[in-house]
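Tokens for chain A. Residues wanted.
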């Protein structure tokens, strides 16, 4: 095999596991509170809407990845089906949005460790930067190492979440009536909550961006994507219903650490005591670390594909001859993520990340719409519904996220226009 080609070493189980690991990250520990503040008792509707949008997007990316089993995800699909500009918009939305996502995951790791008493106050950003560097070093060893570590992390997180849910129901405190929608449907609030919840789902695309390293991609990728997403949608729905039943919408909306409250950690605005804060903190750190592993792996692969196409500097494109990893791209994005960690804010990067990723999936749905014949796996109405959902959720996000995302997109378009103009002049 040429050193310029990644190695196909992932089966359906490992691919689905990477998707689950990417989704079970910071979102499950951070998003339910802000989403409940927007949707109230209609939180479960927002979770299901975000899950439905994610499912439409997942089927589109799976269908496209089966035809184009190469690194790069919707950047490649947009170029092949819609032209270079569409591919660039998708790729730019992905690398900017996912850089923010990685910074958010790293900050959650550090904040979780600080809450557990393992990181001193004032050192959270340093700890977050150290987490990014550690994950990068692991990813540089190869995707099989990434999958192996993700398997362990996902197992720990699922065991912890299962224990939290079991403890909540065994205490006999849940009031199921609290989880039932009350009052008229707040359409705007549910849409905004779904847009925020999308941050907690946006991990299944890691399977598509790693398509060049998956065995039998036409069969494996659709199975892995649907399996991973279906599992996480069900888990999030159970968590949302339990949080509402135990805490109620008002208490949940004001909770900075809803899972700690769910486990019986104390009042919504009071400190926790005993071993539980340490346990919840470690669980949050482990969960975010698993997501960060998958996110950084997918980010470097998309950067590699964009660099090979000349949309990013070509010197970051080469693959390591021993591991098949785009090492230079991994190092470049590691530096950008560390900078975002040192300068950014956790609340702001969640909305910004959702905007960029929704733009990415909008292009993916439009690209899948153009497929036909043997390349078509799912009906066209699913791609149309996915595109509409992406657009609606993107514009429903908090206005700061919409303006920030639009500004960064405009910068990318401006840089590309300048580069094309310079190339024409030189020719």
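Reply:
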């Amino acid at each position: 095999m040429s050193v310029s080609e990644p190695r196909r070493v992932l089966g359906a189980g490992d691919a689905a596991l990477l998707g689950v690991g990417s989704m079970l990250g910071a979102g499950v520990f951070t998003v339910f509170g802000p989403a409940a503040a927007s949707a109230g008792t209609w939180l479960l509707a927002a979770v299901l809407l975000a899950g439905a949008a994610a499912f439409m997007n997942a089927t589109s990316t799976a269908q496209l990845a089966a035809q184009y089993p190469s690194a790069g995800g919707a950047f490649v699909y947009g170029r092949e089906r819609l032209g270079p500009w569409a591919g660039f918009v998708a790729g730019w939305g992905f690398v900017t949005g996912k850089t923010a996502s990685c910074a958010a995951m790293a900050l959650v790791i550090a904040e979780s460790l600080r809450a557990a008493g393992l990181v001193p106050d004032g050192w959270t950003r340093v700890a977050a930067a150290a987490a990014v560097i550690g994950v990068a070093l692991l990813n540089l060893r190869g995707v099989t190492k990434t999958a192996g570590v993700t398997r362990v992390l996902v197992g720990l997180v699922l065991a912890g979440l299962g224990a939290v849910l079991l403890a909540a129901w065994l205490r006999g405190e849940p009031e199921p009536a609290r989880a039932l929608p009350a009052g008229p449907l707040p359409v705007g609030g549910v849409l905004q909550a779904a847009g925020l919840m999308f941050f907690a789902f946006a991990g299944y695309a890691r399977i598509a961006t790693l398509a060049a390293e998956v065995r039998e991609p036409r069969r494996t990728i659709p199975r892995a994507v649907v399996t991973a997403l279906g599992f996480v949608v069900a888990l999030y729905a159970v968590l949302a219903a339990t949080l509402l039943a135990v805490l109620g919408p008002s208490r949940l909306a004001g909770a900075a650490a809803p899972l700690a409250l769910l486990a019986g950690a104390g009042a919504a605005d009071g400190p926790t005591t005993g071993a539980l804060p340490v346990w919840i903190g470690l669980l949050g750190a482990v969960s975010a670390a698993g997501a960060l592993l998958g996110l950084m792996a997918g980010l470097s692969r998309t950067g590699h594909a964009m660099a090979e196409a000349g949309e990013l500097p070509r010197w970051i494109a080469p693959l390591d001859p021993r591991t098949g990893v785009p090492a230079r791209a991994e190092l470049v994005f590691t530096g950008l993520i560390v900078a975002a960690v040192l300068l950014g804010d956790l609340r702001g990067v969640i909305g910004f990340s959702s905007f960029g990723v929704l733009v990415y999936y909008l292009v993916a749905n439009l690209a899948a719409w153009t497929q036909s014949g043997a390349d078509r796996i799912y009906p066209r109405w699913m791609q149309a519904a996915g595109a509409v959902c992406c657009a609606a959720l993107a514009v429903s996000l908090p206005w700061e996220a919409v303006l920030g995302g639009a500004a960064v997109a405009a910068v990318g378009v401006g840089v590309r226009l300048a580069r094309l103009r310079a190339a024409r002049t030189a020719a």
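The two ends are 36 Å apart (CA to CA). Residues 265-274 have pLDDT under 50 and may be disordered.
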